[in-house]
Amino acid sequence: MEGLTTIPSSLGPKETMDRLVAEIRAKGMNVFARIDHAAGAAEVGLKLRPTELILFGNALGGTPLMQSVQTVGIDLPLKVLVWQDAEGKTWVSYNEPRWIAQRHGVTSTEQVVSKMTDMLSAMLRKAADSH
């Protein structure tokens, strides 16, 4: 899927998400919301494997992109989906910051996008790796 990166986690969905929350906070960012899609499905009598979305970020990272093109705000704050497939494997998916910038025609913010990309990749690898 264009612009979407999915990496495997060596941990279960809950532990992966909990570690991701710790990484986000350790980087000084805010967790704006955690949405448990499986719990929402259960509330209406439907089944869904573990599927949880987290929204996070900070104004220093996102504002320069929105100053360039305000519609970037539809894709910010950053979002990460932690989910479990039918075989019980945990995955982590996210929209690539470069894809978000390209989608909205953002220019002259390559340094911000690169920093965001590197930070996100490092955080997610650390949250998804049991070693």
Assembly type of the chains comes to single chain
Counted up, domains total 1
Question: What's the overall average pLDDT, rounded?
Answer: 95
What is the CATH class designation? Answer: Alpha Beta
Tell me about the largest β-sheet.
5 strands, antiparallel
Distance from N terminus to C terminus (CA atoms, Å) equals 28 Å
In the CATH hierarchy, what is the superfamily? TT1751-like domain
- How does CATH name the architecture? 2-Layer Sandwich
- Percent strand equals 25-35%
- Which fold name corresponds to the CATH topology? TATA-Binding Protein
H/E order of the elements? EHEHEHEEHH
Main sheet strand line-up: 1-5-4-3-2
Tally of extended strands?
A: 5
Specify the overall morphology: globular
Calculate Rg over CA atoms. Answer: 15 Å
